[in-house]
UniProtKB/TrEMBL annotation:
Pfam families: CTP_transf_like
Name of the protein in its database record: Cytidyltransferase-like domain-containing protein
Source superkingdom: Archaea
Organism: Methanosarcina siciliae T4/M
GO cellular component: cytoplasm
SUPFAM superfamilies cross-referenced by the UniProt entry: Nucleotidylyl transferase (SSF52374)
A GO MF term: nicotinamide-nucleotide adenylyltransferase activity
Residue ranges annotated for the Cytidyltransferase-like domain, each copy included: 253-415
InterPro entries in UniProt: CinA-like_C, Cyt_trans-like, Rossmann-like_a/b/a_fold
PANTHER family found in the cross-reference section: NICOTINAMIDE MONONUCLEOTIDE ADENYLYLTRANSFERASE (PTHR31285:SF0)
Amino acid sequence: MVDNLAADKYSVPVESIFRIHESPCKIVLAITGGGAEIIGELLRHGSGSATVLDAVVPYSMEAMDNFLGRKPEMYCSEKTARLMAMVAYQRALDLSKGEESAAYDVVGIGATCKLKATNEREGRKHEVYVAIQAACKTGVITLKLNADRTREGEEKIATFLIFNVLARHCGIPEVDLPDRIGTEEERKEEITEKYESVSGPVGDLLKQKIYSQESPYETLGIARIDLNGAQKKEAKTNGENRENEELQNIRLVFPGSFGPCHRNHVFMAKLASEKLGVPVHFEISLTNVDKPPIDFISLNQRLDSLRKYGNETFVGGVCLTNAPLFLQKADLFPNSTFIIGADTFNRLFDAKYYGGKVDISAILRHFREKNIRFLVFQRKSVHMSVNPEILEFCEIVPMGEYEDDGISSTEIRRKQEENKEN
C-alpha cells in the first residue's frame, strides 16, 4: 500500500494559513465527499474570520440539491464543482454587502470528491474536483486518483488541492502535494486545470445580481461581444442610461443559453434576419431565475459555439446581460423583436419566474410601452398555449417556413458527456 501520511507532517503550514488571512481575500467554501479538513485548517489557528465568510458541507444528495437549487447531472464532476463555486460566490457577495466592496477579493470555492469507501465496489473511481469563482475568473482542477491509498491519505490530498487553489488566487506559494502525485506509469495520475477570465464589465453582471433583488431595473447591464475574430468590444449600461450608440440600434434579439448553439438556432436566426432585414444579436443572460449563474468556463464554451458564425451577414454580435426575465430584457432592448421558441413562449407568464405572482396586464403594458415584438418559432411535440392578449405582440412562424428537427442543446450536451466517458 502506497501510504505514509503522518498528520503532523502533512498538515498545511501554519505560516501559509496566516498569509492567507493577511490577504484581502474573503471566501465561502462548499465542500462535499472529502477535503472538509481545509475548513479546520483555516480556522484552528485564529484569525479565521479575516478570510472565511461561511463554510458549508452539503454531504447528502438532498443537501446538495438544496444548496444548488437543483439536482445536478452528476454529484461528483467538474461541472458540479463549478456550480458549487458559483453558488458559494453568490453567497459571498451577499454576505459582503454593505462593506467597502473594492477592498475585498470575494471568492467562492466548491469541491466535490469521490474517495475511498468501506467495502466499495471494484473499479470505483476516486476523483477530486476543486473549482474557484471570483469576480472575473472561473477555475477548476481535476485529479483522478489511481494509487492504492487509505481514506486518510486521499483526504489529505483533497485538502491540499483545495488549499492550493486558494493559495494561488491569493498569490502565495502553494504547498507540495503529499505522496508524490504525478504521472508515474503505475499511477498515471495527473492534475488537469482549466481557467477562464473575463473583463470587468462582464464580471460586474454577476455582482449586480445580488444588489438588484429589490430593484431589478436599477442595475441591469450589458456587455457586448463581437464574434468576427476582432478584439472583443464591451460596453456597459445601467437601466435607461444607455451609453453606447451601437446598443441603442439593436432591433433583433435572440435570447437563449446556447449551450451549445445548434443548427435549429442558426435556421431561426437566419430566417428572422431575412424577415426583418436586420442582423441578429444573440443574448445570453449570465443570471437565471431558477438556477445558478453561468460561470466563465461554461460561458466561453457557449461563445465558442457561436463564434463559428461570427462572419455570417445575419449575425450582429452577442450581448451578455444579467436580465433573465423578458420584462428586464425589454428594458435593455426597447423597440426590439425577440426570437423565441414555443417552449419559451409558453413560459412568458409562468408565475415561478415572478416570485409566485404574475400580473399579465402589467407585463403586457410594459411590452407595449417598450415597443416589444416576438417572433415565435414552433417546435415539434410542444403544444403552444396561446394567450389571445399576447398575440398583439407576436408573429408565429408557420411550420411550413421552418421545420424543427427536434434537436436540443440538452441532448447535444448529453451525447458529448457520453462521448467523454467512452
